[in-house]
Amino acid sequence: MKKTSLVIFNLAEKQAFATWVADCWKKADGQSITLPAYFSLQDDYESFNLKKNQWVTDDEKWSY
To answer: Record's superkingdom (predicted)?
Structure first.
């Protein structure tokens, strides 16, 4: 029987990964895009706002 494992990120790992993605996004001139841009881990309730460099909840992300 094949075992599956879940990858659970702690807060420090989650922040480190978001920081890395944000740095790559900035190097690719992502700030020039006028639309909102977010990064999130699968099935997470938070997203990282790449333009504002901060975490937001799904509710905050979808409220205009």
So the answer is: Bacteria
Instruction: Specify the pTM.
Output: 0.78
Report the percentage of the chain scoring pLDDT > 70: 84
- For residue 57, what are its two tokens? 């909840």
The sign of the CA dihedral 48, 51, 53, 55 is negative
Partners of residue 39 on adjacent β-strands: 48
The residue with tokens 């190097």 is: 27
In the block, residue with structure tokens 């990858």: 7
Residue 6 to residue 17: CA distance in whole angstroms = 17
Three-state secondary-structure class, residue 6: coil
